[in-house]
Amino acid sequence: MFARMFAFVLAIIGLAALRAQFDALIGVALATDRIWAMAGYFTILTNALLVTHLLAITKGWQISSARAAGLLVSIGAVGIIYHALLASQFPTEGLSWWADLGLHTAMPLGFALWWLVFAPKAVQWRDLPQWLIWPALYGGYALIRGAQTGFWPYAFLNADALGWAHVGRNLAALVLALTLLCLAVAAAARILHANRFQSAKPA
Fold first, then answer.
1. E strand or H helix at 182, and its extent?
2. pTM for this one?
3. I need a labelling partner for 41 at 20 to 30 A (CA). Which of 67, 101, 153, 194 fits?
4. How deeply is 46 buried, as exposed, middle or buried, from its count of CB atoms within 10 A (0-12, 13-18, 19+)?
């Protein structure tokens, strides 16, 4: 019950942050254009994906250990990359500040806490490659969209400005960072699962 309540509250925060981001795009008149602009960002798409899962959990869906850990990797990457690389470059205020707070801080930290307390953690090392599927799909989508439209959501993906070789090196560094994050999440999950299993044994 508490897991579902927490998931519901977190989903509401995510929806509010997404709506705040939508409303903050005051330079884009049409709603469809705002949605299309927002759909270019890993942050937006990952938060929308997470909210969808949280609402399903609220309705009683039992998330698997591998799926929960994969979501943690993706939303964790959102928070880490933003605060490490992007926050200082793009200061925000007003509604945009609230949207950034929700999408880049509250949701990553909130889901990390939900995962720590409630999520199943019986992950296997062989689960790690599937956690990279969503970031890889986004990367391909962002590069194809950028090449076709000239819209590059992140400076480190801007092949027009940096060249494809430089972007390739940036992607290699991101893959390495995500792999390390996957290993950290998997190790934490296995330790927590083992400790829970040990504590459940009769004395």
1. helix 164-200
2. 0.92
3. 67
4. buried
